[in-house]
Amino acid sequence: MTLFKGSGGIPSRSVAGAATALAHVLASASDLAEGHRIGHGRRVAWLALKLAPHCGVDASEHRALYFAGMLHDIGELWLQSEIFHRSGPPQRTESIDLWEHPSIGAQAIARIRVFPPRVAELIRWHHEWWDGTGYPDQLRWSQIPTASQVLRLADTFVSALAERPSRRALPPEEAYREVMAAAGREVGPHYARAFSLLFQSDPSIAELADAQSDPSAAPGDGFTLDEATAEDVEALVLAVADAADARH
């Protein structure tokens, strides 16, 4: 089946291509909602996949980890706050709303059946901390899926590289030290050790900070939604429309 039939020299798009492109549109909307430049979710997904083999994430989970990384903050589209677009600490009510975004995002993704079911679970738990002080379920230690811990670590590092109204962008070496300081508190010590070895041996990790040489932007590095149907494409179109409505 062909969607968006080409005319006037515009190429047509396959069902899988349309679905994958719409997934990236959702990820970009999430990036903007959180005050990041477009590509934040893609960078988190790329780093999570780099870390996965070193942290014991089974290869069967890599696909779900990729889409969870891209869409990890989709729940923030439904936060009625400009918390990410202004300086200063959040108000108490804003913090409560923020704690809800992983579960809101998980519910939104669970309704889009084209994604592996595991994606929603990883999104729900990507803010759980190793010491049990994370949210929304206050999981700790081995209660947190390994893939969610990898996602937490990747998000911490990539977020530290980005300039926000409330903080400056850190150079890669400082972002690395921030991750290492979180060992035993935000992330498990063994995950931090795995990241340390990867950071020191793979220069492409530091290049995530440079928009001109961002390795995550290389074509063919991600997964595609090859099993998508026309109904899945329609569901994704509606999800994009819902995301737009949520922000306006």
Kindly describe this structure:
This protein is mainly α and 248 residues long. It has nine helices and two strands; from the N terminus they run ββααααααααα. It has helices spanning 15-33, 40-55, 62-70, 92-110, 117-124, 146-160, 172-181, 189-201, 230-247, and strands at 2-3, 13-14. The protein has a two-stranded antiparallel sheet with strand order 1-2. Helix 2 runs antiparallel to helix 3 and helix 6 (146-160) crosses helix 7. The protein is globular, with a radius of gyration of 18 Å. The relative contact order is 0.17.
Question: Which features does this protein show?
Answer:
single chain; globular; disordered N terminus; mainly alpha; two-stranded antiparallel ribbon; 2% strand; 9 helices; 2 strands; 51% helix; 248 residues
List the helices and strands and how they pair.
Elements (H helix, E strand, L loop, with lengths): L1 E2 L9 E2 H19 L6 H16 L6 H9 L21 H19 L6 H8 L21 H15 L11 H10 L7 H13 L28 H18 L1
Antiparallel strand pairs: 1-2
